[in-house]
Amino acid sequence: MITIERMLIDTTEKLFKQTCTKELINDSENGIFPKIFWNELDSMGITTIGVPEDCDGSGFTKLDAFAVLKIAGSFAAPIPLAESIIANWQYVELGLPLPNTKQTISMINEDVDLQQHSEGWIINGTFNRVPFTQWADELVSPVKTTTGKWYLLTIPLNLTTTAPDSNIAGESRNKVICQNTSINSSQVIAMTPEHAAQFIHETLLGRTMMMAGALQQILTMSIHHAKERQQFGRPIGKFQAIKQQLAVLTGLATSANVIADSAATATVDNIQFQTEVKIAKTYISQSISKAVPIAHQIHAAIGFTHEHPLHQYTRRLWSWRDEYGSEAFWAKQIGENVLSSSKSLWNQL
Amino acid sequence: MEASLQLPVSKASHSLTEFRHEVRAFIQKELDAGSFQPDCDSWLAGFSREWSMKMGEKGWVGMTFPKEYGGQGESNLKRYVVTEEMLAAGAPVAAHWIADRQTGPLLLKYGTEYQKQTFLPRICKGEVYFSIGLSEPNAGSDLANIHTKAVKESDEWLLNGSKIWTSGAHLQDYMIVLCRTEKQTEKKHEGLSQFIVDLRAKGVSIRPITLMTGEHHFNEVFFENVRLSDEMIVGELGEGWKQGMAELAFERSGPERFLSTYPLLEEMITVLKQRADADSTYAYTEIGKLVATLVTLRRMSFSIAQLLEEDQPASLVASLVKDLGNQFENTIIETARMLIESEPSTHSEQQYERLLAKAMLHSPGFTLRGGTTEILRSIVGKGLGL
Which residue intervals define the domain Acyl-CoA dehydrogenase/oxidase N-terminal in the entry (chain A) (predicted)? Predict the structure, then answer.
């Protein structure tokens, strides 16, 4: 039986396959945002997956949304899909209507100062490495005040200064500076620390799912190449040395997908979810330093060229593994929790 | 992604988690009573008749076998929980390990009613143990290159040849011997059959092969005109290869493929907690990375147990678990060395140093037994259609 969830995945995959071409990805790196592709995704309701239908979303669950993000990663889609979906979830969960404007999100900020006055709020501070600000109208970010209160801010980007930057895959990651930026009260919504933590971990998992998808893609490309490319009169995949490398890559991609899916299915229980997400991000980020060199080694010189699409995935993997915290960052937290507990490790798992 | 690599996520049910707590409480009680010392590689090296019989009493040996043969008719997932808890605790489970994991399921699938009635209830009690009789001096990774043969003379079979690297044969009762019952042709996987051989029968001699640690676990087992009746043939004559390979997914995906050095990890954490300088970023990061890998391997292995429970093919993903799991077992050793300044010693007063020594000295075996890493990777390569 084909479920409606399966149909969603198949339809999305088909659309990405047709539309998210090498040329589209290259163009985006040159600053051309894929508007038509984006509008198509939007009109299909892909940007509001996980938002209930009675809140104007397309229904489905967050699990389905994370599965879609894996597809986005497996096509190196140069679009703020994770950012839009997660921003939409926050609005709905805080009881706000879905916005008509385009949003990007940030969970990395330094010393953002928030002052309330009679007509609204004044923001001072910097948001670092914000994805796709050129395309977005607003920046959505949870911010903790000096008094320890959490607020979800919606900051119109035209009221800020943006310093352009990008990751090594050419995806925009800009600095957004607020200098006495004044926003109104409806753009500052109080949130619980638990909700803020959920936002952070959903953002983290979004990137993690994309990494799992991209890992799957470099495996598929490497297998294909090993079967097609002939040397010494036979496909290179016939050589033990190549077979062994591909088997290692297969193990890395498969295990990455298992732990990513495991984290995505843990969304029901919050604490368990956060732990599983940190573990998934750590494990997958760590795997990339083994997986990417294998994919490049198998592809050899052609995979090192701009012409071949391999780099669209490997450069993303190199970027994404460090975004929102590398394996060192999250492993430290996991290890600190383990070592500061009075329980044995086995009793903590 | 290739269909054979799809691994749907399985989560433990509430009742399974409750069962896990029951097993854990039992182990804790036994640990407190001093029944065993946690050890690395306890499924190879921890032979204890007493412990196996204790587990038999709990109904935790052969627990997936039907009740009519002394089992509990439980799921593979429950068995998974028992094996995982035992290995994590470093409990001495070597005696019944093969009978529970391989021989029982083999007999259930292919054995005669007589064989099932005779062996399964005793396996479940934890009192009858089996060895694996596959490798031969000239048939290691090239497993089908088997020369041990059984020839029919009047109403009996005469078995001649030898098996090597047989863990625990000197302590166990029976061996499932894979041997030729027809002349070898170019198709070397054909003409092989499986027999149940009593390791105390006339004509069986067992020679110890001492490990590099000085321990005695391995043996070479010789068969000289050992008489076997038709009753001891498992399944069909000539189908031995297929029958034996069917169980490999169980063998390769289980928690014994990534928990062999787990007791060292647990002890390492205990030592780090007691030390003043434990709160270093380096220690946190390295422990965190190990935990992330451990959790990932557990999710994979458990998902495969679920697939096997549903009779779904899982041999390819099982090979991946073994390869990744063996790497993890070795990473624990190297991380331990980097985090805690000490020298491994099998005779140390420190439990940590003893476990480190044991793990290190047993480590070459991890990536050899149950299919070498190279063979596993070849299997994966073949599965990818290369």
Answer: 5-80
For residues A26 and A140, state if they share a domain.
no
Cβ contact (<8 Å) for A279 and B323? no
Nearest chain A Cα to B273, which residue?
Answer: A339
CA distance A128 to chain B (A): 24
Question: Residues 6 or more apart from B365 whose CB is under 8 A from it?
Answer: B41, B44
Nearest to A336 among B284, B298, B317 (CB): B284
Out of A238, A255, A257, whose CB is closest to B386? A238
Summarize pLDDT for B11-67 with one digit per residue, the tens.
889 999 999 999 999 999 999 999 999 999 999 889 999 999 999 999 999 999 999
B7, A254: Cβ pair inside 8 Å? yes
CATH number at residue A255: 1.20.140.10
In CATH terms, is domain B133-239 a member of 2.20.25.160?
Answer: no
Contact B323 A227 (CB under 8 A): no
Q: Which residues are CB-contacts of B279 (< 8 A; sequence separation ≥ 6)? A: A336, A339
Q: Is B289 exposed, middle or buried (0-12, 13-18, 19+ CB in 10 A)?
A: buried
Q: Which residue has the higher pLDDT, B139 or B219?
A: B219
Strand order in the sheet with A109-117: A109-117, A120-131, A173-184, A161-163
- Domain residue ranges of chain B, discontinuous segments joined by +: 3-129, 133-239, 245-383
Q: What is the pLDDT of residues A276-290, one digit of tens each?
A: 999 999 999 999 999
Asked whether residue A273 falls in the same domain as residue A180, the answer is: no
Across chain B, mean pLDDT equals 93
Which pLDDT tens digit goes with each residue over B266-277? Answer: 999 999 999 866
Q: Rounded to a whole number, what is the distance in angstroms from the first to the last CA of chain A? A: 36
ipTM associated with this complex: 0.95
Domain that holds residue A110: 103-191
Residues B197-251 pLDDT 10s: 999 999 999 999 999 988 999 999 999 999 999 999 999 999 999 998 876 777 7
Chosen domain end from A45, A62, A93: A93
3-state secondary structure of A115: strand
| pLDDT at position B308 | 86
CB contact under 8 A, A253 and B1: yes
B273 touches chain A (CB under 8 A): yes
Nearest to A256 by CA among A193, A198, A325, A205: A205
Asked if the structure places residue A98 within a domain, the reply is no
- What CATH class is the domain B3-129? mainly alpha
Q: Does B25 touch chain A (CB under 8 A)?
A: no
Distance CA A192, CA A200 (A): 13
Whether A222 and A340 share a structural domain: yes
Domain B245-383 belongs in CATH node 3.30.1120.10: no
Chains A, B: CB pairs < 8 Å: 162
**Residue B279 sits at the chain A interface (C-beta within 8 Å):** yes
Query: Which pLDDT band holds residue A269 (cuts at 50, 70, 90)?
Result: low
